[in-house]
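> forwarded from #structure-qc
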């Protein structure tokens, strides 16, 4: 078992390996980049969206031909919260299918040694038993509020499975639970719940507003993982020696993906109270049931990851404090409608 990737003999990715992090400006990609830099990796390749549009197949193939990365972290995706998914289903399908198809195909063609594909816990059926095990994939209907994203991600991990089985690639996929951290999307229409609530409570405190509106009933349960913990898990999995999790890659019906989470969940109401307390908000929290609740509960089964001896490190309150501090330092960048009630 590997516990320290600094031991050159033990880690699969050498310190001078060429590693491409796709989506390095996003929540997950930026955390993976920080993690790799912290681990001493010095040959990291990145491209901004303006430099390389991953939905353009020819551009992606030319990039892989030129750069020849040995390892790839595929964290580029169109992501968004419950509302963005239901208002932009075409973009969620097109962009994600195009990005992953182009990158996976180019990675295979250019003989990338190992690739890690970022999925999402919303791939699981809405009514699957909880906690969600990897084997529950495609055993029932998806949650409608994020079906376009889930369908694209399922196609992506099925592509990883197919390429591994047919071409002998080492494409692994992780299914993280709901994530939060710096560099997240703080737009109140399209963000996920933690950045939205950090922003709403921050603005309420700075404007002296006495009420914050939280979407839905407050009853749904979610599990939240600090993004640096996910990045650590990604680095850990990419550095596992050949044969640890990939020995069955070529077998039919063997999932190539692995859940990453904390094993703890809470209601949205409890989350709102936690963020309110951390933000110093003493006013009223009002739930707005006209907004969607989404899936009633989403908690991952972590047996597979725990068997590899990996655990998250950042407790929720510490992670929320870090993001609140980050947001407070950056909040001048986020301009929104200035109202007494922050919804
Ligand atoms: P989901 O896990 O895919 O449903 O993604 P979200 O993070 O968008 O939503 C999680 C839960 O938080 C849902 O039940 C939302 O209704 C609830 N929620 C409460 N307030 C907000 C908010 O301001 N923004 C978002 N995105 N969700 C909120």
């Amino acid at each position: 078992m590997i516990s320290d990737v600094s031991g050159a003999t033990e880690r699969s990715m050498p310190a001078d390996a060429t590693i491409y992090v796709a989506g390095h400006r996003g929540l997950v990609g930026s955390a993976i980049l920080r993690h790799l830099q912290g681990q001493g990796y010095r040959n990291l390749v990145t491209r901004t969206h303006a430099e390389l549009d991953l939905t353009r197949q020819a551009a992606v193939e030319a990039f892989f031909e030129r750069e020849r990365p040995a390892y790839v972290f595929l964290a580029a995706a169109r992501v968004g919260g419950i509302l963005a998914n239901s208002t932009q289903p075409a973009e969620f399908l097109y962009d994600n299918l195009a990005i992953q198809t182009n990158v996976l195909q180019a990675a295979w063609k250019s003989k990338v040694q190992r690739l890690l594909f970022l999925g999402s816990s919303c791939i699981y059926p809405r009514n699957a038993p909880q906690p969600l095990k990897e084997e529950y994939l495609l055993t029932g209907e998806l949650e409608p509020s994020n079906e376009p994203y889930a369908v694209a991600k399922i196609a992506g991990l099925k592509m990883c499975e197919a390429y591994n089985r047919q071409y002998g690639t080492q494409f692994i996929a992780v299914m993280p639970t709901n994530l939060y951290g710096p560099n997240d999307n703080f737009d109140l229409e399209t963000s996920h719940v933690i950045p939205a609530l950090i922003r709403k409570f921050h603005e309420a405190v700075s404007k002296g507003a006495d009420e914050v509106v939280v979407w839905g009933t407050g009853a749904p349960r979610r599990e939240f993982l600090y993004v640096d913990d996910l990045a650590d898990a990604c680095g850990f999995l990419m550095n596992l020696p050949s044969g640890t999790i990939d020995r069955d890659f070529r077998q039919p019906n063997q999932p190539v993906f692995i859940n990453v989470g904390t094993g703890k969940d809470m209601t949205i109401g409890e989350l709102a109270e936690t963020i309110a307390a951390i933000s110093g908000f003493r006013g009223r929290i009002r739930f707005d049931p006209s907004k969607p609740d989404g899936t009633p509960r989403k908690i991952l089964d972590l047996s597979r990851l725990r068997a590899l001896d990996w655990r998250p490190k950042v407790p929720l309150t510490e992670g929320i404090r870090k993001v609140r501090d980050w947001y407070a330092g950056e909040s001048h960048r986020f301009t929104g409608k200035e109202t007494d009630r922050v919804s």
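QC bot note: Residues 1-9, 336-343 have pLDDT under 50 and may be disordered. The two ends are 47 Å apart (CA to CA).
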